[in-house]
Design a protein that fits this description.
The chain is of the alpha+beta class and about 140 residues long. It has helices at about 30-45, 45-60, 65-75, 110-115, 130-140, and strands spanning about 5, 10-15, 25, 80, 85-90, 95-100, 105-110, 120, 125. The longest helix has 15 residues, at about 30-45.
């Protein structure tokens, strides 16, 4: 688990590397909190970080979904049930979603996928749960 804290007196985000104990600081602001999390991920799980960064660079319209998926993977939220079925943790911590691979791509049960999916350049539908399954497979294959 990556724990980014906010130091109110210094008005900055902080992350402490659990291996070295070194404190890394980032200016306040929503974008900087995300940058702090991505930096911590790059230190703790470079394969996952690199896979997410490459995908986000190739498909910028999915950037938010990709990094949310990376958060799910980083917290161990992807369970492979079979080669075509994964159970993915809900980001609110209550329950899981089934992500199924079909002949036409991935499907998910979440409301985001059903009501407001994101699309890549090939018109494939995505949500953060599908992104998590893809990142889990890609990042873990690089080991």
């Amino acid at each position: 688990m990556i724990n980014i804290t906010y130091n109110r007196s210094a008005k900055q985000y902080e992350w402490i590397d659990p291996q070295s104990g070194e404190v890394f600081t980032f200016e306040s602001g929503k974008a900087n909190k995300a940058a702090a999390w991505r930096f911590a991920l790059s230190m703790l799980d470079p394969d996952l970080h690199d896979a997410a960064q490459r995908w986000a660079d190739e498909t910028p319209q999915l950037e938010r979904v990709i990094w949310k998926g990376a958060e799910i993977v980083a917290t161990g939220g992807v369970e492979e049930k079979s080669s075509t079925l994964h159970m993915v943790a809900s980001s609110d911590g209550y329950g899981r979603y089934a992500v199924q691979m079909t002949d036409h791509g991935y499907t998910c049960q979440c409301m985001s996928f059903v009501e407001n999916p994101q699309y890549d350049q090939h018109a494939n539908k995505f949500c953060k749960h599908i992104a998590a399954v893809v990142l889990h497979a890609v990042a873990r294959a690089e080991y």
